[in-house]
Design goal:
Blueprint: H1 5-15, E1 17-20, H2 26-46, H3 48-53, E2 57-59, H4 69-79, H5 82-91, E3 96-105, H6 126-132, E4 139-144, E5 148-153, H7 164-170, E6 186-190, E7 195-199, E8 204-206, E9 213-221, H8 238-241, H9 248-265
Antiparallel strand pairs: 1-7, 2-3, 3-9, 4-7, 4-9, 5-6, 5-8
Helix pairs in contact: 1-5, 2-4
């Protein structure tokens, strides 16, 4: 790993992302890949029409619908492994909490284009988005399982509002399309073994091609208002917690869920 953990935090705070090349070796990815491929196979069968028509990602990978507890435990132990934990805790030093997992793949329709977005645009109007980038943000920790074109990001956009060009493209207005090129975009190719860390609320898009299959873990600061996005089914049971290397981020989520439940029942 190049640089100290503090250097990575500084880079993230300034740019909204960083990539660690060759961070994981093949042995460290074996069980992750096994569980993810099984999930993807089962998910495709159950969502065949959606998959063939428009899908480019899935979520709730650690849930019980498509994986047995053995595979779920493999995922929990990868997410909480020392290499993941030290990066998560460096970027989110205040009680990092597990939100969700996502899987990103190529759409079946080759004509389907990617698109620029901020994750917060799906929950907020423009004023809400402007506020969201001033507050605590969710962080993606992306692990590619195959070599792929990667991501295109707009560095620094996690803490500033869109330029006119960026806003017109992102919103597909004024004769622009959300798949248009941006002069501020930076392409980040990814290979097996890399780790890409980026803010969910920066301007970004996935790049389709090759054998794209990327596993994302989404984590947030416990002080942020994100607990409602955590699905109970995607968290480990109390029994499973005992088998997890470092269950802290899952315990933090469970604690927040318990507080949320208490507030709504009292």
């Amino acid at each position: 790993m190049n640089g100290t953990l503090n250097d990575l935090k500084v880079t993230y705070d300034q740019q909204g992302y960083f990539v660690l090349k060759d961070y994981f070796n093949a042995d460290e990815l074996i069980q992750l890949k096994q569980a993810v491929l099984l999930f993807h196979e089962n998910w495709q069968k159950d969502n065949l029409y959606f998959y063939q028509r428009e899908a480019f990602n899935s979520s709730l990978i650690t849930g019980t619908q498509y994986l047995a507890n053995t595979e779920r435990l493999q995922l929990f132990n990868f997410i909480s492994s020392p290499k993941m934990s030290q990066i998560i805790e460096a970027i989110i030093p205040h009680k990092p909490a597990f939100m969700n997992t996502q899987l990103f793949f190529n759409p079946c329709t080759k004509e389907q284009e990617n698109f620029w977005h901020r994750d917060c645009q799906y929950d907020h109007d423009l004023a809400g988005q402007q506020q969201a980038i001033k507050e605590t943000q969710v962080v993606h920790f992306r692990v590619p399982l195959f070599d792929e074109p990667g991501m295109e990001l707009v560095p620094g956009s996690h803490t500033r509002w869109d330029t006119q060009e960026e806003l017109d493209v992102r919103l597909a207005r004024k004769r622009k399309f959300s798949s248009d090129e941006l002069s501020t975009g930076k392409k980040i190719p990814l290979n097996v073994g890399d780790l890409l860390v980026f803010s969910a609320d920066m301007i970004h898009r996935g790049l389709y091609g090759q054998d794209r299959l990327a596993f994302d873990t989404l984590v947030f600061d416990s002080s942020g208002d994100f607990v409602d996005y955590v699905d109970d089914d995607c968290l480990p049971s109390q029994q499973m917690l005992k088998q997890i290397n470092n269950p802290t981020i899952f315990e933090n989520s469970l604690y927040l869920k318990s507080l949320n439940y208490h507030e709504h029942t009292c």
